[in-house]
């Protein structure tokens, strides 16, 4: 087929979530509730970090970045997914798909940088407590945060631009519930090997290196904790590290399965969609509860905020 003379499609059709006969409404209602929980949990973290000066510390600054990422990450595709279900119309315009792909990967890649920064902050706080204030200054934290977002943008922009310029002539059906790189490349014409190689390189450099750095940081943290004389401090630190590592395992495990392979366009998209549910729906809901809301300082801040609201009423 002569791809140079083809008429590019103006819209795509999203296949949607894995089919569950008779339970579609329950499934989409559950997604809506998870989305609301994510918005409320992450929105609460951002609000209390901004309003409570006691929480204006490096750790909570990075956590508010993570919460902002989670809100943007889920908002990129969940409202469109729910709207398509309600209207029984699974179409998405070509440029809407490209924009969704761009922001989805911007937020997704930036998450790994932010998680790395959180592990770095905890490493300095626990292993070098006397030097913590001098190392993690406001200026340093701001520069690290900007670097994380800018690094996420640089990591994905080249690949997204190349995907946007591919010809799409043979099919417009995307076998996914959002515009993901593998299913989009599956229906693209032309040679996609360079795009796949670039995506694999980004996955290895960003995701794998982030995981290695995060694990090394927590190993040093655990080593330091084991040398603490106080048993209660050890238990608190172990509890915090264990909960953090649960989220890290869910995120990295599912993303490794989906993206850390040389040819994502030939993957099993049925399995990919099922695994994608973990890091698109579950992780953004867990993040604020695991990283922030269980923290005593955050609990105190929320209690004070509620008391002020009650007094006003």
Quick overview of this protein structure:
The chain is an all-alpha fold.
What does this structure look like?
With 313 residues, this protein is mostly helical. The chain has helices spanning 24-51, 58-75, 78-87, 94-127, 132-135, 138-164, 181-186, 193-226, 231-259, 269-293, 296-312; strands spanning 11-14, 91-93, 173-174. Strands 2-1-3 form a three-stranded mixed β-sheet. Helix 1 packs parallel to helix 10, helix 2 (58-75) packs antiparallel against helix 4 and helix 9 runs antiparallel to helix 10. The N and C termini lie far apart (69 Å).
Q: How are helices and strands ordered from N to C?
A: EHHHEHHHEHHHHH
Rg (CA only): 21 Å
Q: What does the overall shape look like?
A: globular
User: Number of DSSP strands?
Assistant: 3
Largest sheet: 3 strands, mixed
List strands and helices in order, with pairings.
Layout: E1 11-14, H1 24-51, H2 58-75, H3 78-87, E2 91-93, H4 94-127, H5 132-135, H6 138-164, E3 173-174, H7 181-186, H8 193-226, H9 231-259, H10 269-293, H11 296-312
Parallel strand pairs: 1-3
Antiparallel strand pairs: 1-2
């Amino acid at each position: 087929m002569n791809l140079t003379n083809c008429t590019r499609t103006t819209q795509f059709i999203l296949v949607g979530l894995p089919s569950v006969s008779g339970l579609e409404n329950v499934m989409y209602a559950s997604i809506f509730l998870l989305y609301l929980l994510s918005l409320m949990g992450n929105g609460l973290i951002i609000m209390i970090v901004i309003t409570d000066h006691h929480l204006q510390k490096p750790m909570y600054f990075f956590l508010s970045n993570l919460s902002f990422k989670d809100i943007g990450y889920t908002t990129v595709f969940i409202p469109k997914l729910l709207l398509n279900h309600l209207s029984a119309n699974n179409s998405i315009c070509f440029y809407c798909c490209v924009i969704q792909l761009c922001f989805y990967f911007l937020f997704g890649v930036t998450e790994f940088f932010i998680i790395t920064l959180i592990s770095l902050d905890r490493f300095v706080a626990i292993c070098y407590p006397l030097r913590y204030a001098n190392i993690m200054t406001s200026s340093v934290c701001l520069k690290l945060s900007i670097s994380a977002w800018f690094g996420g943008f640089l990591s994905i922009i080249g690949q997204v631009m190349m995907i946007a310029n591919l010809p799409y002539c043979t099919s417009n059906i995307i076998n996914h519930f959002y515009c993901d790189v593998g299913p989009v490349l599956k229906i693209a014409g032309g040679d996609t090997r360079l795009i796949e190689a670039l995506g694999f390189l980004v996955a290895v450099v960003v995701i794998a290196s982030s995981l290695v750095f995060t694990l090394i940081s927590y190993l040093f943290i655990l080593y330091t904790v084991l040398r603490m004389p106080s048993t209660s401090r050890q238990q608190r630190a172990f509890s915090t590290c264990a909960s953090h590592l649960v989220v890290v395992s869910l995120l990295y495990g599912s993303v490794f399965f989906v993206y850390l392979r040389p040819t994502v366009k030939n993957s099993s998209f049925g399995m990919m969609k099922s695994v994608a549910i973990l890091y698109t729906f579950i992780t953004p809901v867990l993040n604020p509860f695991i990283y922030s809301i269980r923290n005593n300082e955050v609990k105190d801040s929320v209690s004070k905020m509620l008391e002020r609201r009650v007094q006003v009423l």
